[in-house]
Amino acid sequence: MEAEAQALSLHLRKETFAAGADIHATLVPQGMQNSQYRPGAIAPEMPAILYGPRSERVKNAQLYHARALSLVEVVRKLIILEAEEAFNAWEEAASQVSAAREAAEAADLLADSLTKDFTAQLRVRVDEVVNARVLAAQTRAQYNEYVFKQIIALAGLARVTAGGFQSELAEGFAVK
Predict the structure, then answer these.
(1) Cα separation values, 11 from 14, 40, 62, Å
(2) Which residues pair with residue 15 across a beta bridge?
C-alpha cells in the first residue's frame, strides 16, 4: 500500500504512513540472553519521509515491504524452533517426573516397612530406619524438583505459543 501511495505523488518528497502513525513511539521489549534466551521485539522499519523521484520512492517502499515480509518468515521459523525446544523440554521433564514419582513411592514404602519392623522389635536397627527416612525424603525432594521443572517447561511452552497452549500447570501433581 505504501508503494501505491508513493506512486500517486510527483513531488520529490512524500510522507509515509509512519509520519501519521507514531510507530516509533512505543518502546520495544528488550531481549534476554541469560540462562534462558528470549529474543527482543523488532521495531517496524519505515522512515517518516521518502525522498527522490517517484520511481525511486516506489522502489524504496517496495524494498521496505520485501524486508518486512522476509522478517515475518524468519520470525515464524524462530517461533517454530522455540516452540519445538519448549515442547522437548516439557517432554523430558515429564519423563523425569514419572520416574521420580515411582522412586519416591518405593522409598516411602521401604521406609514405612522398616519403621513397622522396628516398632515390632524385629531385627532392624535404628540407623537403618533413619537412613530409609532420609532416602525417602531425598527422593521426594527430587520428585518435587522434577515437578517444578515440568511446570516451568509448561509455562515456557505457553509463553512461546503466546497462550495458544494452555495448561492447568499444577493440576494432577500430588506434591507432598
Answers:
(1) 7, 37, 18
(2) 49
SS3 100: helix
pLDDT digits (tens, 9 = 90+) for 121-145: 888 788 888 989 999 999 999 999 9
Comparing C-alpha atoms, which of 82, 93, 87, 91 is closest to residue 150? 93
Question: Each residue of 3-48: pLDDT tens digit?
Answer: 777 777 777 777 776 666 665 555 566 667 677 666 677 766 777 7
Contact assessment for residue 89 and residue 127, using Cβ atoms and an 8 Å cutoff? no
Residue 12 DSSP symbol: S
The pair phi, psi for residue 63, each rounded to 5°, is -65, -45
Q: Outline where DSSP puts E strands in 16-112.
A: 32-33, 37-38, 49-51
Output the CA angle 6-48-59, nearest 5 degrees. 35
DSSP 15: E
pTM: 0.60
